[in-house]
Amino acid sequence: MRRAELVTALLMAALSIYLMVKSAELPIGWVPDEGPGGGSFPFWLSAAMLLSCLWILYNWYRRTSPPSQSDEPFMDSYAARSFALAGGGVTAMIALVHVVGMYGAVPLFLIFYIRFLGRHSWTTTVSIAVGATVGAFFFFDVALRIVLPKGYLEPLFIPLYSIFL
Amino acid sequence: MEILGLLGNGFLVAFEPLNLGLIIFGVTVGLFIGAMPGLGSVNGVAILLPMTFLVPPASAMIFLAAIYYGAMYGGAISSIMLGIPGASTAVATTFDGRPLALQGKADTALVVAATASFIGGTVSILLFTGFAPALAHIALDFGDPEIFALMLLAFATFVGLSGDDIPKTIFSICIGLVFSAVGLDIMSGEPRLVFMNITGFMHGINFLVLAIGVYGIGEMLWTIEVTRGETQMSKATISLRRIVGHFGEMMRIWKSWTLGSFLGFFVGILPAAGATPGSLMAYGVAKMTAKNPRDFGKGEPAGVAAPEAANNAASTGSMLPMLTLGIPGSPTTAILLGGMVIWGLVPGPRLFIDETVFVWSLIASLYAANLFAFLINVAFVPVFLWMLKMPFTILAPTIFVLSLIGGYAPTQDMHDVWLMLIFGVGAYMLRKLDYPLAPAVLAIVLGPIAEPKMRQSLLISGGDFSVFFTRPIAGPITIIAIILILLPVFQLIRRKIKESRQAG
Question: pLDDT tier at B237 (50, 70, 90 boundaries)?
């Protein structure tokens, strides 16, 4: 925990500096007849972020905040494993949306999670995966007319479009 | 009298078939969300907001408010049956609810929780109906400096009252405000903070991207880690005769739920406080003022009634500043406020004049939602108990999928989905290190309102910051805000003096 606290505070301080530099692309001071420049609001807030990061670092140095006293690991093996599987699964699902679209990625992710991580029966797995996908199609594409991305599966949907849209 | 007329019209709208259906559906969904460990009203409202584009804005708002209400009832179910709070707002309910369940009196706890929630809800909506129009009327005179001062006050309550690590709270507020500034600068029209020149940042960072990232993906990652292993569910015997008997019990402990209702409402109004500290405070005060404080924690029904009345009252309380001033009283109402902006409703005191029908139908729907949440809760307890057995390995992927689709739907841009994933993972990491995240969500909603108010105020005053101090209303608000920010510093100094005295 103690090391994670330090690393995070340093990273966030770096982010604050980046945000300050980026805000300074617009005027950060007073623009005559226009009031404060476009960059002033984010610039001074990023500066405040940087100051609070320095304060967090100071607390880390004095060991006053709970994470800076803790010797527990930031992530034990269980946490790391579940984070890798769940977080990795979601990342893979979002990446797959670009390839096979929402209606390909969603059932694949549900099958992966429910069957292979949850060890539920194939009946449960398939009914949820299919139900969620069909439900989403009728809710978003048909009822809301929010066309979810289809990726390379687009041609398969053309007959459905002609029926429902 | 005028209020009754407006409220009557509100009821006519709230009882239209579509809206009534949405209220019943909303409280049912809310009860379920509240009962599931790891999901609370804020998660439900954030993840389901994009799904409400299907219905008109007023109905969408009624539905989301019903979820908010239902979740406050539902939180008690898992607090009592599993001993783990279904939402952070129901933490205090576990103190006496779980011991009652272990003694085989789960039904007492469940009925007391539902009844106390109903009373807390009703008292707070009555208070709300009385206070809201008056407050909105006063607020009509507020100019830009006043509104900005109020927002400053909202953020100051987080620093002064939330009890979280102070530099981390300030960091969270600032990062939310900076993210809200991404996109086109409204006043000059120039693009700003377009990171790495990715065009997706040109349209700004939608508050839902951050909210779903934090409360959908981040929350699930967190819950997966925290709820390792299986939980043990208590048995409940429920029969009509026993339920009727419990109402007698309610009369005995009237003091606890009266106290909880009023305390909860007023604590709920404060942006940093809300339902979780409100219910904890109500529990503490109920214990302090009880004749039998020793029984608390060992299965005293009053220890269930006080926090449950308080968390429902607080959820209504947090809507008061949202509807009258345009300043949310809780993370959930922050998301509702963001939703109002999407639907083209301008939050602030003028809402009561410009959108009379919307406001009053929402208030009327709260009365209805409260009643239905109570009825559905008591009538379908066995169903909710059965659903609590739903394995987390089915719930979690469903929430991830809803987050993915919910992150895509508002802007229909995959850029936002990736950003949501980054926010979710970041939120999970930061949460492990005690960074509070609610202030960031509040900030990204309020940022686009706060910034122009500040710039216009400064433009009027010619760059003189004294504008926030010298005006009759803005002045005192700003000063209170500054005192709140400095409150922890005062406490630190007092402690230091005490320590040095003891040492000397």
Answer: low
Q: Of the candidates A52, A69, A86, which is a domain's last residue? A: A69
Same domain, A44 and A92: no
Residues A108, A65: one domain? no
What are the C-alpha distances in Å from B381 to residues A130, B58, B112, B236, B242? 29, 30, 13, 10, 14
Q: Which of B330, B281, B257 is nearest to B68 (CA)?
A: B330
Beta strands in B292-446 (DSSP E): none
Q: B248 CB near a chain A CB, below 8 Å? A: no
The two three-digit tokens of residue A133, written as one number: 């996908």
- Examine the pLDDT at B38 and tell me if it is beyond 80: no
Please report the residues numbered 29 through 58 in chain A whose beta carbons come closer than 8 angstroms to any beta carbon of chain B. 30, 34-39, 41-42, 45-46, 48-49, 52-53, 55-56
Instruction: Say how far apart CA B442 and CA B338 lie, in whole Å.
Output: 9
> Do A160 and A90 share a domain, yes or no?
yes
Q: Is B459 on the interface with A (CB under 8 A)?
A: yes
Segment B296-307, tens digit of pLDDT: 888 889 999 999
Mean pLDDT, all residues of chain B: 87
What is the pLDDT averaged over residues B289-302? 86
Asked if B394 lies within 8 A of A118 by C-beta distance, the reply is yes
What phi-psi label fits residue B396: left (phi over 0), alpha (psi between -120 and 50 degrees) or beta? alpha
Cβ B97 vs Cβ B109: under 8 Å: yes
Q: What is the pTM of this model?
A: 0.87
Q: Which of B168, B409, B418 is opposite residue A56, by nearest beta carbon?
A: B168
CA dihedral B431, B435, B441, B443 (to 10 degrees): -170
Picking from B403, B392, B39, the residue whose alpha carbon sits closest to that of residue A119 is B392
pLDDT band at residue B238 using 50, 70 and 90 as cut-offs: low
Chain B interface, mutation test: which of A7, A21, A28, A49, most B Cβ atoms within 10 Å?
A: A49
Comparing B441 with B462, the larger pLDDT belongs to B441
Integer Cα distance of A139 and A148 in angstroms: 11
Residue of B299, B255, B257 whose CA lies nearest to B107: B299
- Ranking A8-12, B149-153, B400-404, B420-424 by mean pLDDT, the lowest is B149-153
Per-residue model confidence as pLDDT tens digits over B251-265: 888 888 899 999 999
The domain of A41 spans 2-69
Both tokens of B37, joined, read 């460990």
Q: Are residues A17 and A65 in the same domain?
A: yes
The C-alpha atoms of residue B244 and residue B487 are separated, in whole angstroms, by 48
Q: Based on the domain organization, do A21 and A99 belong to the same domain?
A: no
- The residues near B479 (Cβ < 8 Å, ≥ 6 apart) are B469
Q: Does A60 touch chain B (CB under 8 A)?
A: no
d(CA B302, CA B284): 11
Tokens standing for B209? 């991207």
Picking from B162, B131, B123, the residue whose alpha carbon sits closest to that of residue B259 is B123
Judged by CB atoms closer than 8 Å, whether chains meet at A55 and B193 is answered as: no
Q: What is the DSSP letter of A165?
A: -
How far is Cα B160 from Cα B166, in angstroms, rounded to an integer? 8
Q: pLDDT, tens digit, for every residue of A95-128?
A: 999 999 999 999 999 999 999 988 899 999 999 9
Sign of the Cα pseudo-torsion (B43, B45, B46, B49, in order)? positive
Domain stop point among A24, A43, A69: A69
What residue in A sits closest to B452 (Cα-Cα)?
A41
ipTM: 0.94
